[in-house]
Write a structure and sequence with these properties.
alpha+beta; two-stranded antiparallel sheet; 2 helices; globular
Length: 109
């Protein structure tokens, strides 16, 4: 399963995504595509709408069962804490994510 949450999707990109995904809410797309189709679709979107912010959650063989990727400007950013991916809502760009929470506290693993 793949979930794409985008910011202000252009009509041409929205039409393309509706070929393989359903749109349960505006700018949120859910579908079951294979990894190759997902990667080709994301490459097409990034090539034709380079400023589009997207959060992509895809099924993966991991302890969580999914992976999270961000493209462009998004209000949330995936951060790996203790081997788990979480979404940070606020962060300081001057620091590298190294096991610290977005508020600066050290994560307890």
């Amino acid at each position: 399963m793949t979930v794409i949450v985008a910011n202000d999707t252009p009509p041409a990109i929205r039409g393309l995504l509706k070929r393989w995904f359903i749109e349960p809410r505006p700018n949120a797309f859910v579908g079951s595509v294979n990894a190759r189709t997902r990667e080709k679709t994301l490459a097409y979107i990034r090539r034709n709408a380079p400023g589009l912010g997207m959060l992509v959650i895809a099924a993966e063989r991991s302890s969580q069962g999914f992976s999270v990727e961000c493209f462009g400007e998004t209000p949330r950013r995936p951060v790996r804490l203790c081997g788990l991916q979480v979404l940070a809502e606020a962060w300081d760009d001057s620091e590298e994510p190294s096991g610290e929470t977005p508020s600066g506290e050290t994560a307890q693993c």
